[in-house]
LysM domain-containing protein
Amino acid sequence: MSPTAPTRLAEIWRGIGALAVLAGLLVACPVLLYAVGGSPLPCDAPAWPEIKALLLQPDTDHALFLGAVRLIGWAAWCLFAAIIAAETIGYLAGRSAPRLPRPIRPAQHLARDLIAMTALIFTTSTALTHPMTSTPAHATSPAPQTTDPRAPASVGAEKAPSQESPPAISGAEQAERPRFRTRIVERGDTLWAIARREYGSGTRYPKIFKASRRLTQPEGVPRLTDPDRIYPGQTLRYPQPKTNKGKRSAASPSKPVAPKNSSSPPAAPSTQPPNRPEKPLPPSPTHSPGSGPTSASRPPVDPPPVNQSSGPQSPPAAQRAEHTKPFAITLPSGAYLGLGLASALSVALAATRLHRRRRRTLASRTWPTPATPEPAPPPAVAQAHRAHLDTYADRDEPVPIDADLLARDLATPIPDQITLGIGPNGAIALPLPGLGLGIAGDGAIGTVRAIATELLARARADRVELLIPAPDAHTLFPDTDITELADALPGLIVPPTLNAAITHLEAEIIRRARLLEDTEEPDLPSLRATDPAEPLPAVLLIASVPEHASNTLHAIVQLGARYGIASLLLGSWPPGTTANVRNDGSVTNAEGHHADALHDARLFNLTATDACGMLQTIRTATGAPEPAPPQPPTETDRSPDPVPPPRASNDGQQTLVQLSLLGPVTLHTPDGPITTGLRRSSRSLLAYLALHPDGVSRDQGTAALWPDHDPDTATTMFHTAISNTRKVLRQATGLREPMFIIHAAGRYRLDPHLIDVDLWHLTTTLNRARHAENDTDRTQALRPVTDLYTGDFATDLTHEWAENHREHLRRTATDALAHLAHLTRHDQPDHALGALEHAVRHDPYSEPLYRRVMELQAQLGRPDAVQRTYRLLTTRLAELDTEPDDQTHQLMTALTSS
């Protein structure tokens, strides 16, 4: 007998007990009432005089009382039988029965629990009552996986894979129903241009917008909320004109065509309320190298809209094939990751760094102190993070800072779909609620590991809850302390056995069903919108399920579809969908409801070593202490030393070019900023050379700027960047002879006689203060820092060396400002307070900085300002899902009560 047989036997006895209770209430009760009191129906209808006489005479033999009890008993039984019938019908139909008045609601809850308990134990894979059980084994609709399953049927004939196949309809009915086509947005597209090509007139673009606005887009692609702003990678759906009534085709040449230079009109008014604006992580670029945008119908907005193009369009299948690459990246270890996991790891890394900045002790009293290196993220996290940020740079969009990534993450809703990989038609996104998917084959563990890691990274703010039995958790993450991880991550539950996990799911179904009943909400999204404080994450069970438990689990998942519950199983899953995958994630065979979407696909996969590093970053993103580095930092990992001052330029000679590195990398001449012609690689080269005024060798430059390219390609790109920089600067200055980047003795460096760098002025000031002989000289040397430190270093660069120096410069500058405040706190407290407030603007998560500010505000007699500062800190830390520590709260209390 298997180890789980006793538990199965107990479940059977539970079902027998539920049936016995139902039988007793529905059969034994009326038999007992009949035996004791007889039939509730009289033989003859009594006349009114008889009733009046019976009511007026004394009830000495208690006949009247017993008759009333008998009638009440029969009425209660009839009511309960009706409730049982209503709940059974509602259960079979997959929807809740009408809510009864409060006095009889406990009877309704009892009937519902008895029916659910019986169905959970005894329902088989073919006797389930949920509507999803009637779906065929294979999906028959070739619709894209990005269709929103909640869209009304009138929007289009396509359905997401999670929905039932549409019933057969007659040819006449099919002719009356609108037909739809889909396409993927390419760089250069506008709704006006698409409508002009499809319908012959761009003025019909609102039809495409209304048909597409509710589509669920692939992971990392924003939804369509504005007809004047569409993005590469978005899926559009547009109705085709009816041809059965003698109408001409929309593409007929006889149709009027709008002029090419006509601008797009304002968006047409819609009777539907607009979708809530989201802040998704933007998609990857979809244009080919060398292609660029043309003139837009409106001024570019951040993020910029796709511009109009009149080029030929590919068929939808070809277009989808072109968009498979931007949604996935391959790590050196062979792991194949989706952009969703890369973006989630970027958020986790950002939260880790902000927690580190929050806890860092200021070096204000003993400044300067030896620079401590910034802990390097795990290699897999660093590579995924860089790949994600490169998607912004590839579209020339501002690269988000850590605070921006966290703010966007806070606006991310609870996921209603799960992205598994890349197929011939683009990203494979299956609906999460009610999902029953089994992954089998040699690559099953790697694929399930990748999906689990992404969901754990997105579990912040009660969005996702993963339920993984301990044996399966150790199989998926062998290099990770699962117990410690489960304690640190609120989105991970590790029950000891599969049976304990099933019991947890049963309790969650009952809890959510009662919440819906008590709040009178129709579904889970409505309940989340009504009460956002109630944690109702999407629940996913990840486990290997033996055959004898498959029916029970299948019933739970089917019941839990309404309540946001799904399953991802290690091994085949005959009741649902099964995909067999190789070690690289490629699908060899798929069977079940979502089989068509999985054929010829490559699913994401992750190695155990890479997953260990990612889970470490996900753990530290919650504020958990970071582990000590296993070895001393290398030259690449160590924060760069302060930049030495540049060589002195000739007296009286004014530089021709100003290079600004505090903020985005920009170039200015006396005539204004240089806004065109400069490549992104040229900006990176200028920033790297500015960090090394003494020059770098070609090998140093190529290793820092193009570490993932082969040496020959990197060398070519290095020379191209230098050539582009010289050409642009010569055109901007009107001079033909200056080199701007000097090559001498095998080293490349910026010409300090022609190029001035704001970073050099800041580092020169810091070096002067660092070598001051006394506090008075140091104070005078530090005063210009508030004017010189205007932003973080090269905020639009994603290289590791740029991020290291960005953090190093922030630490150095904030410590210098804190030391300036320490030196002037007695003689000039207002100036000291100004220096600290400037430091807070550049490091808004540092609790020690806020404590210094509150102390100075209290010294100046401003208790109200102390409270405002504390509230500002509380608001900032709420973005990190934490709050000020006890030391800060006690300080605020002491300063405001004195």
In short: Residues 5-37 form the longest helix (33 residues). The longest strand covers residues 417-423. The chain has 30 helices and 20 strands.
